[in-house]
Amino acid sequence: MSVSENRLQVVFGSGQVGSALAAHLAGLGLPVRVVSRHRAAGLPKVVNWCGADATNFEAASEAANGAAVIYQCLNASYAKWAELFPPLQQGVLAAAERNEALLVSLENLYGYGPTDGVPMTEDLPLAATTIKGRTRAAMTQELLNARDAGRVHIAIGRASDFFGASVTESTLGERIFANALAGRRADFIGNPDLAHTYSYVPDIAAGLATLGTDERAIDGVWHLPGPETTTTRQILDLVAHEVGHPVGVRSVSKLAVRALGLVNPKMRALVEMAYEFDRPFVLDTTKFQTTFGRVGTPLPTAIAATVDGYRNKAIATALPTDSPNHITSQRKAERR
Asked: Per residue in 88-110, pLDDT tens?
């Protein structure tokens, strides 16, 4: 199977990764269509948008009509992730099969389960022990089965915990960057002194684009490159440098998270994944880097850009909505 550089790229999902991927693909000069329930603000003008619900197989297939490559960047509400996510993938898979398109699927690392600090490589078995982990592993197997049956060609790209200017609901999201800019302590679940790989959204987008446009990626599983792995505390030191003052950390124990989960569905859903933060959690991206020659953004650069993005959003929120500075700030944010 060959991948043509001037054929339609269809991105399912207009969230933090889907929007970044669409912009990246458009920047490569490729025709791009984004499919989502609601149009995202800030999509480049050259990107076409189509409204559709991926759980409606006919609508999803029609929305992807003419696609050479389909990217699965949809996600589901975290509290109902195991229930709502599989039907979304099934709709995108059906769209890829019916359009005979390469399916590039973004995955997280839940399927591996606890690895006791051993760096994760692509040949690690999917041995998840949690509800969300087993859901993720089953979804991966669904893609592999479709590939092995000759129904579709795939490329799976896996990334660790997201961060970036557009990321809020993440371990390295608002509780870190927004709190730091406001002079508050950063909230963190687990031990901040352990090595932990974080994935930067622009790197994820670039990595997925590589999987969709390079024939060597077809039918493989790939760990997407990102900034160098370090400890969360060292990341907080970089954040402190950017905001101009020390950033304290308030570690939240698993017991406290479990207690909060009694009244907060998101926190309740987070409890089972807490193992990622009580031992080293390291993603090995050697296979991707040696194959494609692409590495991630240096960590100081990624942290600086993320802080800058959060700062701009804070300024825009503080300004009156009809002020020229507010409008300018909004336009700057949309261009990122």
From this structure: 999 999 999 999 999 999 999 99
Q: How many whole angstroms separate alpha carbon 226 and alpha carbon 202?
A: 9
For residues 331 and 76, what is the distance between their CA atoms, to the nearest angstrom? Answer: 28
Tell me the pLDDT tens digit for each residue of 208-265: 999 999 999 999 999 999 999 999 999 999 999 999 999 999 877 666 666 655 556 6
- H or E stretch at 189: strand 186-189
| Distance (Å) of CA 237 to CA 44, 60, 180, 247 | 34, 44, 11, 7
What the block records as the tokens of 217 is 């990626």
Q: Quick check: helix, strand or coil at residue 16? A: helix
3-state secondary structure 100-157: CCEEEEEECCHHHCCCCCCCECCCCCCCCCCHHHHHHHHHHHHHHHHHHCCCCCEEEE
- H-state helical runs in the chain: 16-27, 57-63, 81-99, 131-148, 174-181, 201-213, 232-243, 254-260, 265-270, 286-292, 299-318, 324-335
Structure tokens at 282: 């390291």
